Amino acid sequence: MDEKxxxxxAPPEPIDRRDFLNATWKVLGVALVVEAGWTxxxxxxxxxxxxxxxxxxxxxxxDFLTEGTVKYFLDGRFYVTQYQGGLRALYxxxxxxxxxxxxxxxxxVSDGFRCPCHGSEYNVxxxxxxxxxxxxxxxFPISIQNGHVMVDTTAFVEGPARGxxxxxKAPPTSCEATP
Length: 179
What we know:
Elements: H1 17-44, E1 55-60, E2 70-73, E3 78-83, E4 86-91, E5 102-106, E6 109-114, E7 121-122, E8 128-130, E9 139-140, E10 142-145, E11 148-152
Antiparallel strand pairs: 1-11, 2-3, 3-4, 4-9, 5-6, 6-7, 7-8, 10-11
């Protein structure tokens, strides 16, 4: 009878410790390589975002028909404002030191924005009025697709320079705490 063959009914030889550890290390090494590949793929191939850093649907155009309408979008970190029929998407961050700018709203209509940190004030379309800010509020590109307002938050456009005021010139009067 061959040494490897066992008579019927005899238990098989137990695996020795060295063979067990060698097999375990090989399995763990393969698992590590697979996990590293999967993680690298996830990092290098990100999923498109529906929030900040992607294109955000701000709703139907009909939501912005009232003069002075301002709506805040937390997932995109921006305000959409309507003034004289034009829509603008304004970044919530103050260009001075980066505080979150609050809207000055009365009866769902805004007359501008005010930074709670240092008091910079902007009109309803984000143009600089007073305070230490170096320019107006930064903006995001905006488009209308199938009757919906789409805001692209992947890149912003620097706000207008100090002194460029095409909208209301009066500072906001009805400011509350930052939303």
